[in-house]
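quick one before i forget lol
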Amino acid sequence: MKQRRRKGLIDNYMVEFIVTDLGRGEPVGFYSAPLKQIARVIHPDPTLNDFMYEMSWMNLSKMNSRECQSDVPENCGKIRCAVLISAREVKDSKQDSSNNKPGFIQISPTKEGPWTSVRLNYAAPAACWRLGCDVIASEVTVKDGNRYVSIRSLVSITNNSEFDHNMVGTEEFFELEKYSPSLGWISCSPNFTVSSLPKQWPSAGEYQGISNIELPEGWDWIDDWHVDKTSTGTDDGWIYAPDIGHINWPESARLTDPENSARQRRWIRHRQYMPLNEKDQILIGLHKPGSGIPLPLSGLTQPYILEFRPKNDNEQNEYSWSVVLEKHRLNDFSLELENSTEICLSMLTESDGLLYCSQTSGCSLNNKKGLWFCLSTEASEIGKDLHSNPIHDWNLKIYSPLSVTNFLPLAAEYAVNDQLPTEETVPCFKDTIVPGETVNIYNADPRDPLYLSVLPQGGWQQLHGPAPILHSSKIPSKMLTLENSFSGRIVQVIVEENHDKKHLIARVIRISVPYWVASARCPPLIYKFIDIHLGFSASISQPGKEQFGPAKDLTPLGDMDGSIDLHAYDTEGNCFRIFVSSKPSPYSSVPTKVISIRPFMTSTNRIGQNIYLKFNAGDQPKILSASDSIVSFTYCEGEQEILQVMSQTEY
């Protein structure tokens, strides 16, 4: 990239480079210096320019040192680059002292050109430009008043799954030492050779060695051996214990104690899978969940095939590279089966695909060892070429083929099986899902029959066994019947299975109910629904002594602002007035209504001393304490009026 600036402005500018890991979307280091310190002048004769000579290595500092402004920043790498200024601009600056001439950005695949001017388009999410014989995209963002221009290829991948798509392993070795009063700390670690240690580490006389771990076929080291300081939270990684037998990694003591005569620390080294035919493959790197990364331009001009493999830090299972099981062309929200079973990056079409990664090592909870993923290929037009053909910006999205969302007001245990469950059947998925949460399921083949079990907390059991949700010969269940083991009450739960409008292969399962009752700031109440049109009554909770008041028709709750008044009673004739209204549930994607139960009237004491209240002349006095806020009372039914009294006063 080349940026033209007037030399008269060199003294007033700083240049800052920020290196960002696009897979994680996080900056890893920066370099900052005055423009006049690193700028170089381009000679008018291109043959006299030695660009390799002009480029120099610059040390990158960690991003945290950018905020704390440390005098000695900690280095985290290097970048080789050059800041070049046109000699013609230098000549023009001597004749014109104006400081308001705007600059512009030019890009080229080679130093000889051709150069393309990149203009900043804030209105469009992306714009296309020529880079030699290829077409690329640029995006402009503004953050903290600074403008950032991102130049990338026309194909990017978004990881919407919970897995890293890469294969990185960790080798470890535990160094063990014991203390001798005459010799100091003595190594007890077998085969600890310093031949594999960095040169800046202690000499061979200080260690007995670390074993040269042999790499599996197709793997390569990506860093050096280093001490694991994260697990212990110490600067040197040591943990201490009275003797070797009492060392418990990493829970043992972090600090030295006079009685501790043994210590241990962990050395780690990371390895990455490198295929033997590297020339035929381009490794993109680790792709974190939720992140997007553009693909290299070289992978789009040749017939490269996209493959990925999942990785989860919480498990030791390893998986193979993905294979395409099904691929459907997207045509006006319908699917047409394609003959191609590969994702060719140079010949992309809008499509949805089902991909599978088989498990190569580790243990599996069920008999199907592998993971399934959906890959959606979407295109957006960002320009046209010389022949008025559209130029597309492609985005490949990886996500789960099946998801379950709990729209119930209770946490519930869900299980998905690929066959009718028995005592020996292990479900594909089993977990407790809190209200409003969505879980993604990867270890179930969406082409097979699948059955769903739902057990909400609070003593609920599912009647009639698991219900089919995906089945080629059975109609998927629309309702689940649940029974409460405490009250015997039976309710029906809605099971909605549909497709996402953009992702037509993936299945989305939503669990909801037509309505639920939410009560707040009321005494314990027992509710009873009566089948008139739909009626409702309530009683103050007294087990076995319910005294329900008159039932009220719930039809007014169908209106936006509809409400009803309700009276609940107890066996002593006390009354509690209730305000009943309805509102949409907090989950906008389901039509559930919430019947809201609130006291018709609440009281708050802001006087600073206790108050006695009566709601009519025949009512018993009630204390509204000085600290009470938004409280409600039962009262003796009668002509409604509020009587209050404080100490040494009358009602």
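fyi Residues 87-93 form the longest helix (7 residues).
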